[in-house]
Write a structure and sequence with these properties.
The chain is of the alpha/beta class. It contains 15 helices and six strands. A six-stranded parallel sheet has the order 3-2-4-1-5-6, sandwiched between helices. α2 links the parallel β2 and β3.
Length: about 325
């Protein structure tokens, strides 16, 4: 028996937004001894249901999801926190004789779970506030240039408007005196003690994915997405510095509610932002090792997935 096959099994089911991951996950759970763990940085928040395509009550009854509805939108959540939570849930599922099925599109969470997390300094509110004030005064491209001067490797990875990650990279440097790149270089590998099969669901035709993204965004609006964001907006304790508000779709709706855009512009920006997210997710996936691609929307999607899982000894035939 190889060392890998001696490890307990797990499935990573990844893919861009609107690719069909959830539908496949439901079929797997209904036929095989799996249990779903959500790998999604927005689904962790309560009261963010429509804009995150959160499973409804009927779907959750059919297939319970772990790591959703954990936090208030005012609370932060990190990839390192996700790794800790996911490992706990995976151990619980494995102990019950089932296979952890990790489903989502937050690729950084998958990476932290697979590889482990660098030992980064805790957030410093005073430093964070000062950086946000500077960004407000000079803009995020200027902050990105600042980052390029101290940590060119990190800056190369980030776009000039990637505010959250630019802010965190600068904060790490100011708090610790070491760059984010240096912290990652010192990281001790913490390999995941599971035999993982990596699946990715994605239509091969990018135009098909774009159509699905636009259709889903418009359907969300019909289902009351704006009312959902308005309820968050009217709380008074949330703002665009928070990860929950910066989630794709929510940020564009927030700008509309603040009067920064009209309705049609909001819709266009929401669809474009979701397409850009999908593009980033696909870029991540292309560099992922040992990945099995599945054609999203194929009538043979379940059969093709099962062939791979059976061939890799996750399920018996």
């Amino acid at each position: 028996m190889t060392q890998e096959s001696a490890l307990p099994p797990a499935i990573f089911l990844m893919g861009p937004t609107a690719s069909g991951k959830t539908a496949l996950a439901l079929e797997l759970v209904e036929r095989y001894p799996c249990e779903i763990i959500s790998v999604d940085s927005a689904l962790v928040y309560r009261d963010m249901n429509i804009g995150t395509a959160k499973p409804d009550a009927d779907m959750l009854k059919r297939a319970p999801h772990r790591l959703i509805d954990m936090l208030d939108p005012s609370e932060p959540y990190s990839a390192a926190s996700f790794r800790e939570d996911a490992l706990r849930e995976m151990a619980d599922i494995t102990a019950a004789g089932k296979v952890p099925l990790l489903v989502g599109g937050t690729m950084m969470y998958f990476k932290f779970l697979r590889d482990g997390a660098a030992d980064l300094p805790r957030a410093d509110e005073a430093v964070r506030e000062r950086l946000l004030e500077q960004a407000l005064e000079h803009g995020w491209p200027w902050m990105h240039q600042r980052l390029a001067e101290v940590d060119p490797v990190a800056a190369e990875r980030l776009k000039p408007m990637d505010s959250q990650r630019i802010q965190r990279a600068l904060e790490v440097y100011e708090v610790s005196g070491k760059t984010l790149t240096e912290h990652w270089a010192e990281q001790e590998q913490q390999p995941l003690q599971y035999h993982v099969v990596n699946l990715a669901v994605c239509p091969s035709d990018r135009a098909v994915l774009h159509e699905r993204i636009a259709l889903r965004f418009r359907q969300m609006l019909q289902e009351g997405f704006l009312d959902e964001v308005r309820a968050m907006f009217q709380r008074g304790d949330l703002d665009v510095s928070m990860p929950s508000v910066r989630a794709v779709g929510y940020r564009q709706a927030w700008d509309y509610l603040e009067g920064h855009s009209d309705y049609d512009t909001m819709v266009d920006k929401g669809i474009i932002a979701t397409r850009q997210l999908a593009k980033r997710q696909i870029t991540w996936l292309r560099s992922w090792e040992d990945l099995h691609w599945l054609e999203g929307g194929s009538p043979n999607l379940l059969d093709n997935a099962l062939k791979i899982l059976q061939a890799n000894a996750i399920f018996s035939e």
